[in-house]
Amino acid sequence: MGLFASEKKSKTKAILIVVFVLAAGLFFSGKALACTSGECRPTCFDTEKPTGEGCTVSADGFTQEGSCCEKKSGTDLVSGKVCSEDKGMVAGRCYVSGSAGMAGCSGIGPGLALGEKGEMGCPSDQICCKTQEYQDATQGKPETSSSSPSSPAAAVSPSSSGIAGGLVPCKDDCTLCHLVIGFKSIFDWLMGLLFIATMLIITVSGVFYMVSTGSKTMIDKAKKALTYALTAFVIGMGCWLMINIIMTMLGFSNPLGGNWWEFTCDTTQTKGAAPSSSLPTSGQPAGDYKPSQCADGALKNAMALKDQTIYDQGPLRGKKDSNGYWHLDCSAFVNKCWQDAGLKSPGGSTKQMTASSSINNGNRNSFGAGDLLLVSGHVVMCMDQGCKQVIHSSGKDDNVKISNGDYYISKGAGVIRAADYGGSSCKTTMLKIFPSRYN
Amino acid sequence: MKKRYIIILIVIVSAIIILAAINFFKEQNKKTSQQTEESSESQAGDGLPDLPGIDRKEFTAGGQNSLSEQIDSYVDSQTESRPSSGENKELKDIQFKDKEGNPIPLNDFEKAVGIKVDDQLQKYLKSGDYSFMVCSGKDGEENHGLLLNIRLLSKEETFPDVIKILSRWEPSMLSDLSGILFKNASLGESDLSKKMEFKDGKYRYAELTLENGKKISLNYVWVDDYVIFATSLECTDEIYDYVYGAD
């Protein structure tokens, strides 16, 4: 009789477990289903994935692009080989599965950074890792050391240290943003641990039940273990659920789209943000492109206006059409997108923008999303690292459209870096579409 | 397990299921409303407004005559009705549509006007996105242009490829495009067989003296996503500025 009662209880528990797992599965699959169309994710391009949704930056060939990450194709900086699209590339190198965690020069030794081809006496078709002292020397400080020749497995740019792996993804250049990322990583790790531990204990308990052969001690142990595991899991998930319900009820939403618990913050302001009034120095090497919150916001604002015939009746520059509406011209368009992302205007007209010092160092991969390219009285905004595509207000189409960036790069465009105009007041609010559109 | 634990568990599970359902329907509603918004936006985007200095025109096929004859007479009417200098100087951007209002594919347009765009270049073009341009020049001058839109390139493609193709096309560019650019110049066989040497100036250009003593020039340039072909420096300038939308 007692054994029968025990079996009945076990059945009840088993049913409860199945129901619980099904409910949890339903919850997460419901979320995933709703997300497949992309509306609950950051605005990413076709080839990209939002970070955190199956895309691990620097770990599987993806490269950070603002709130998204993308598999880059291109030519490997060291071998000169074309990287295959399915594998992608990271920091100028073709991604090879399991290759030193894409540690590059930093994987060889501390303080090493990727040099240029032929630099420091390396063969002209090879790249060596350079020491911090060499970098200081080339920037005008006394030369104290020589190069560290090698053929790095992969390179990691200083900027990408902020998005590399680890719970707190930074070394000496930590910011408040890294602290937040650290907390989030710890939380993610604990949630993963909770799930794995629960599943493990449920399995072990099940095994105990099966091999107990009616032993009351073993059944009790299994029962206890199962109860504690489920209680811990329910408490853990319940806490999260309660916070989620409260946040949803309070109407807290992510201004960039997506869920309230997703966030973006700028990991690039390592030495303090550039003052909003300071302009980049002419000829200053741009270094690798650093995605920033402001640049990302500016591009999102621009994308929100794609394919639109836009006008504004305010004091913005533009052309007046036969109905008296003002169409934003190229400079008014980029200004609007920048300003609504919290960036300072580099000037109202392209002439004024051109007067700003360019950071074009000839390396197109050092320009990226949100940066402005200036050529012959026209200004466009980069959409990706390397500016393969740009977005701009076109005179011919009379609307905002995406074009190839090659033309602007080939013309040696002046480049204005979004992050240099951001200061500490970068916003992430989406641009509100103009009051009404032309129709 | 005590009864109340079971009740608590059932309540939590039910809450999760309800929340998941609400979440799912909320996202679905958002998706539907977004789609509605997008479709209304795309409708609203049709029809470009008139801007000063630009006369956007559309040829729509529909008469009894062949497409070739229709386009031919339309192009003639547009080039002849050009205002004399000083009066309402406007650059005309003429696009060609079929009866349904869809762009006439470039291949059909080529056949209709008797031109031939390089096969290699065609691979990089948006088929229906081209314009015949009439510049605001003096009467009696060949002041036309052709604007071809280059599609978005894939990651493997580069513009130097396009430039090489244009460069290779130079020897036959005049004879291939004369059907629309030098329609009224009455180029003879001997004119068309002359070798045109292109030089680098403000734009890539070539000049030719015809048998009848008249001088013609052909200019081309790649700007933004467009390749501009025009019959004078001034006309190229005008189309160039129009494409750029420079302020």
What do you see in this structure?
The complex is a heterodimer of chains A (439) and B (247). Chain A is an alpha+beta fold and 439 residues long. Chain A has nine helices and 14 strands. Chain A has helices at residues 2-35, 104-108, 132-138, 176-211, 216-249, 293-304, 330-340, 350-355, 406-410; strands at 48-50, 62-65, 68-71, 89-90, 93-94, 113-117, 127-130, 318-320, 326-328, 372-375, 378-382, 389-394, 399-404, 414-416. Chain A has a five-stranded antiparallel β-sheet with strand order 13-12-11-10-14. In chain A, a hairpin with a 4-residue loop joins strand 12 and strand 13 (399-404). In chain A, helix 4 (176-211) packs antiparallel against helix 5. Chain A is elongated. The model of chain A is unreliable at 29-59, 97-110, 139-165, 268-286 and 427-439 (pLDDT under 50). By secondary structure, chain B is an alpha+beta fold. Chain B is built from seven helices and eight strands. Chain B has an eight-stranded mixed β-sheet with strand order 1-2-3-4-8-7-6-5, with helices on both faces. Mean pLDDT of chain B is 80; it is low at 36-47. Classes of the chains: A alpha+beta (439), B alpha+beta (247). At the A-B interface, helix 1, helix 5, strand 8, helix 7 and strand 12 of A face helix 1 and helix 7 of B.
